[in-house]
Amino acid sequence: MSDADVASVAGVPVAQACADLLELLSGVSDGRSSQGRDHSAAVVLALVAAATVAGMTGYTAMAGWVTDVPQPALTDLYLRAGVLPAGRPSRSTLWRVCTDTDPQDLDTAIGAWTTARRSGLDPVAEASPENDPAPQSAPADLVRLDGETVCGAVDADGQQLHLLAALAGGVEPGTPVVVIGQVDVAGAKTNEPARARDLLETLDLDGRTVTADASHTVKATAELIHARSGHFLFPVKENRRALFDALNTLPWPSVPVAASRIDTSHGRITRRTIQVLPARPAYRFPTSTRSG
């Protein structure tokens, strides 16, 4: 493989993939002392990020990709990180740095970078101050909360890792989205709503609309979003029985359909319609203005 081929693996130049992210990663620690350390955490994490962008999965593939990075590009990366070149990090070094890095600090750095890349802002300027986990950014139209259990990842107690992410994107179907923040959900999945509020506290919600599944249709979350100048669109199901029954008694047959769409995802054909009525005080759901 030639230097030119390696320098633009998957169409993404190494220098470009690591450019702004490198400075953000300089604030991420892997717990090692700087004395006697050959490879800085920022350089290793930047190489891992570039290898991931190039399509590498697993530490063996990443280490092989790093081996093929042209020496001038590798030297430039070390120098821009403010350290002297020290060969190429091995597979064990990649693994050790990735597993020992503080996950919250890494999430903050990556969140600031992906948010800024999406909005066209300077990711370094938009990164949060030290000890502030909130990557401030230009508002997107929509913020969607989505929780997923990570396959093959377990914590020190052997429990599978469950993450709750905030994804920013436009309202139109097919619009690209980016993860602008995420938190781990310890214990039962029922802890998601509380962790969602922790996550929302770190985001700029001014003018944004937050959506989530029915487990997040709780008063505390609605009040938090409203207090941070955001909006919410939450589904109501049987987990909110009183509210569900109250909405079910409304005269929906006489309400005109505001929008309709055929959904063919998940192996089935579903017709989704939207009908809207003013919210009623009797619902006792804070700050709501519309029901549908």
TrEMBL record:
Pfam families: DDE_Tnp_1 (PF01609), DDE_Tnp_1_assoc (PF13808). Keywords: Membrane, Transmembrane, Transmembrane helix. Residues 119-138 are annotated as: Disordered. It comes from the Bacteria. Residues 180-243 form the Transposase IS4-like domain. Residues 23-114 form the H repeat-associated protein N-terminal domain. The keyword Metal-binding does not apply. The chain crosses the membrane at residues 42-66. InterPro entries: ISAs1_transpos, Transposase_11, Transposase_11-like, YbfD_N. This is ISAs1 family transposase.
